[in-house]
Every structure is written in C-alpha cells, then in structure tokens.
Amino acid sequence: MADFPTFASDAKLEEASSVNKAAFLSSAGASLKVDTAPLNQPGPREILIRNHAVAINPIDYKQQDTGISVRTFPHIMGMDVAGTVVEVSTDITNFKKGDRIAAVAPHLPTGNPAHASFQLYTVVPAFLASKIPDDIAFTDAAALPLGLTTAAWGLFENDYLEIPRPSISGSPLPENKEKVVLIWGGSSSVGASAIQLLAASGYTILATSSSKNFDFVKDLGATQVFDYTDKDVVKGLIEAARGKQVLGAYDAIGADDTARSSVEWLHALGGGKYMSALYGTDPELPDGVTRGSKAPAPLQGVDGGPPIWNVIWQDFMGEGLKNGKLRSKPEALVLKGGLARVNEGIELVRKGTSAKKIVVQIVE
C-alpha cells in the first residue's frame, strides 16, 4: 500500500508477532480492499486493541462514496470497535492487557489511520474506551460506541442541549417526570442511546419511530412513541408535552423534514433548543427557538477530553451494561467472515436498515 503520513503513535509494535490487515479505500467511490497495514503501538494516553467486531455507520458509506474528510488515500475507515487490549501506554492505569473493551475509533478528527476500526488492530485514546462485562458479546458491544457518544454529547454538553447529566447508580429523580425531551428517530442508533440516557434519570421522553418499532422504542424507556409517518404526528407530540417543562428536541435523523418538525414542536410549546445528530442540519428557527452548536463532538482532546466523556465512558457505559440501565440497542445484525464483509455491511447501511445495527465479526 502507499505510505501513510507519520504520527506520534506510528512506531511499530516491536513485540507483536501478528500482521495487521485493513480494508482500504483507494479512492472515492471504490470498493474497499483488504491488504496489509502498519501495526502501531499506542502513544500517550492510548491503548491498542485487537479488534473482534466493528460496526458500520452512515458516515462510512458517505466517506466511501464521496471521500468526505479523507485527508490522504489509501484510507482506512470505521469508528465503532470492540475487542481485547493488547498494549497500553505507560501512563494508562485503568486498562491492562486482556481487558475486554468497546471504543470509539476517532480517525475522522485525528486524521490518523491507526485510529480507524476497519482493521485487525486499532489504537484509541483511553478516554474513549470502556470495559465491557464478560456476558456482553463483542458483536453487541461494537454497536454502542459512536451512537452513545453522539447522543451524550448532544444531550448533555455545554452549547448543546445542556440537559443535566444522567444518573449512573441512583434511582431516577421523580421531579424529572415533569421535564420533557423529544427524540426524533427513536429506533436509530443515536436515538436508542439518547432514550436510554434520559430514561436513567427519569425524564419524560417523547419519541418517534415507525409503528412496527413502537414496542422496541417503548422498551428502551420512551414514555410515548408516535408514528413519524402520521400527518398529525407533530400535533400529537405537542398535546403530549403540554404542561411540562420542555428541555429540548434532539433530532437523531438530521433530515430537513425531521428538523422542521422538531422546530415546529418547540415553537408551539413556547420555544426551546433544537439539536441535530448531524451537525450540518440547519433549519430556519422561529422566535423562541434556538439551535445547539453545529460543531461535531470533539473526539480528540487534552488530558482525557471534555468532562462528559468521563461520565459516559468511565462511569455510565460499564456500570450501565452491568445493571441494565444501558443495553446494546438497536440489536446487531452480524456479518461473519472478517474484513472481507465490510463492503457488504456498508451497502446494507447505505440501503437503510430499521432497528438494526450492522456489525462485522472480525474474530470468531
């Protein structure tokens, strides 16, 4: 393969006997091809994972189709990963070799191919990783990281919706029942994570989905679910929220029509803040409706990143998977066969899936 740019964590892993392989994108519009790739050791505050499963996200087919955010070709994609720790940097104390973890692979903001997940080994910042219980399959754990991170950032961080952060081990607060949040797209990966995060603190959650996914979304913790195809869906959402304190609308889809509907709901209830999972969504805002930051969540930071990462990654994810407050939803649709199946997985996401997360099993 062509040479990659040099990064601080690009020194070869001297003691590794395995060879790394990756699914490479050679140009925009090309199919991914599996070939050998550099095997790197972790830099400061990083860990090296032997990937057992990777998940596919919409950004992956957008990158493949258009080359968006690709700095150099050949390029390695992928942002969701679960596997075992094989190396840790000397300044890491909360992870060790052999730990089972799930993580966000932040190659988009860092530009470092070592930080991509569509390969056998991935380097990740430790603050974007969490240990997973032994009874959680790698294929299930891989479905969580990016959706959970996107949901948490949009809901809780400053300049976004700024909702009080979720309860990790305590009981939901009774007073939060009088506070309502709209989640548009409750059966999506981001929407499912958002609902679970809000339900942990006892908020009233209004969500949309197709009628066939009502039970799924209610089981996540939504208070009421509305059919997004109903021409009167916004009217129903407005009536369901009357008399409650509106905390905001989180649009997990980020399309023009979902943005307009979310904003209409806020405006009818006296105003509030709109936030989209896709930072480029830019609806017209009437009086009383504001917009959370359009900037994407910073997946790379100094000294562990923003405070919300500690809340979500070091506390909520691991503990939530143990006590049942967090489940890997939507369920994984698993493709076995390793990196050779990544193209197929991307195509399934491109065509659209409902209440499923496409996951490729790397190690069986």
UniProtKB/TrEMBL annotation:
<comment type="subunit">
    <text>Monomer.</text>
</comment>
<dbReference type="GO" id="GO:0016651">
    <property type="term" value="F:oxidoreductase activity, acting on NAD(P)H"/>
</dbReference>
<dbReference type="InterPro" id="IPR020843">
    <property type="entry name" value="ER"/>
</dbReference>
<protein>
    <submittedName>
        <fullName>Oxidoreductase</fullName>
    </submittedName>
</protein>
<dbReference type="Pfam" id="PF00107">
    <property type="entry name" value="ADH_zinc_N"/>
</dbReference>
<dbReference type="InterPro" id="IPR036291">
    <property type="entry name" value="NAD(P)-bd_dom_sf"/>
</dbReference>
<keyword id="KW-0560">Oxidoreductase</keyword>
<dbReference type="Pfam" id="PF08240">
    <property type="entry name" value="ADH_N"/>
</dbReference>
<dbReference type="InterPro" id="IPR013154">
    <property type="entry name" value="ADH-like_N"/>
</dbReference>
<comment type="similarity">
    <text>Belongs to the zinc-containing alcohol dehydrogenase family.</text>
</comment>
<dbReference type="InterPro" id="IPR013149">
    <property type="entry name" value="ADH-like_C"/>
</dbReference>
<dbReference type="InterPro" id="IPR011032">
    <property type="entry name" value="GroES-like_sf"/>
</dbReference>
<dbReference type="InterPro" id="IPR047122">
    <property type="entry name" value="Trans-enoyl_RdTase-like"/>
</dbReference>
<feature type="domain" description="Enoyl reductase (ER)">
    <location>
        <begin position="29"/>
        <end position="360"/>
    </location>
</feature>
